[in-house]
UniProtKB/TrEMBL annotation:
Its EC number is 2.3.1.178. This is L-2,4-diaminobutyric acid acetyltransferase. Residues 19-174 form the N-acetyltransferase domain. Pathway: Amine and polyamine biosynthesis; ectoine biosynthesis; L-ectoine from L-aspartate 4-semialdehyde: step 2/3. Keywords: Acyltransferase, Transferase. It comes from the Bacteria. It holds the Pfam family Acetyltransf_1. PROSITE patterns: GNAT (PS51186). The keyword Acyltransferase applies. The keyword Acyltransferase applies. The lineage of its organism: Bacteria, Bacillati, Actinomycetota, Actinomycetes, Pseudonocardiales. It comes from Pseudonocardia adelaidensis.
Length: 174
């Protein structure tokens, strides 16, 4: 599930400042956890899980920084049964950086950095218009088709959780 929200009390970075995108380090796990929690829309995992993610899935994840401050993250992994598919688990962007293309830059950078992938998958709830736009525009930028289907319905996710719609994008030409 992806989200594009965050802490509203942060000072908005200037557009001219350079965005640095790189793979996360273990120490970034705490900041990713805090940012996920601040979005108010992501399913927040334990702090421990973000630390593990930044250790074990750093090659398939990215963080974005301006002036050394973490503004966003994308966590992903290769599908074990289909290693040419990059699955995006979560996208989080600080509220101060929204509307500046940070999520799109991170997504493009991540896809470019993971060798041997030609498809991208992500699940999005029907009410998450920001993530729907993010993944739809990724497909447009890369001239790739998008298929959408329900991956997990309410009967599996439980009451109070929208269905998760699978966005499968690709093949993506490199």
């Amino acid at each position: 599930m992806a989200a594009l929200a965050g802490s509203p009390d942060r000072v908005r970075p200037k557009r001219g400042e350079q965005l640095m995108i790189g793979h996360p380090e273990v120490s970034d796990g705490v900041a990713c956890w805090r940012l996920a929690e601040a979005t108010g829309v992501l399913d927040v995992n334990s702090r421990y899980s973000y630390l593990l993610w930044c250790r074990d899935f750093a090659a398939t994840s990215v963080v974005a920084r301006r002036d050394g401050e973490l503004l966003g993250f994308v966590t992903g992994f290769r599908r074990p049964e289909e290693p040419s598919t990059l699955v995006v688990w979560q996208v989080g962007v600080d509220a101060a950086a929204r509307g500046q293309g940070v999520a799109a830059e991170m997504l493009d950078a991540l896809f470019d950095r993971v060798p041997g992938v030609d498809h991208l998958e992500a699940t999005v709830t029907p009410d998450n218009t920001g993530s729907i736009a993010l993944f739809s525009r990724f497909a447009e930028r890369h001239g790739a088709p998008v298929s959408r289907s329900e991956l997990f319905g309410v009967e599996l996710l439980g009451p109070g959780h929208e269905p998760e719609i699978l966005f499968r994008i690709g093949p993506v030409d490199r």
